[in-house]
Amino acid sequence: MLFESRGARPRVDPDALVAASAIVSGDVTIGAGSRIMHGAVLTAEDGPIVIGANVVVLENAVIRGRAGYPAIIGDGVMIGPHAHVNGCVVGDGAFLATGSSVFPGATIGDGAEVRINAVVQVNTRLAAGAVVPISWVAVGDPAQLFSPDRHDEIWAVQRTLDFVGTVYGAGPDATMADIMRSQSDFYGEHHGDTAIAD
């Protein structure tokens, strides 16, 4: 289903396919030969989404465009079921496996792989052809790779990357109440969304 949101409508190439149960909302461009499968959600919140040619977005994946962090997906990319792709750039031929998460400001190089349940943190740069192993975490610019049991080492790098500012646009002293009040207002703007007839 296509929605006009925040004054913008999706643009879908005639050769692309959006499954009946997928949601495509706002400033989203979908290239030729791309396939957006059942339950996927592509939502251009306050930043655009650009999907290249021959991209497959599988069931229940979420792609989100953010202010200052558009979601730009290159050509020939596979985005697996339940993946979370948020305000990042994904190079041509990359593979984002089931349950993978890529956070705002991240860049995934051409042909890189983010395997099952792996995470690429905010403002992280993953080189072309790099592989983030199953459930591992990539963090930093350039990316360092850590197994999930190395939390203290991950945090030592991650705390320098401004997660709260990048994801929520909030300062370092913001409380959870501050962040959630702002997020409630932000997402409340969807009250004005309009379904686009086929």
From TrEMBL:
The protein, known as: Transferase
Top-level taxon: Bacteria
Keyword Transferase: yes
Gene3D superfamilies: Hexapeptide repeat proteins (2.160.10.10)
A Pfam family of this chain: Hexapep
Keywords: Transferase
UniProt GO MF annotations: transferase activity
Keyword Oxidoreductase: no
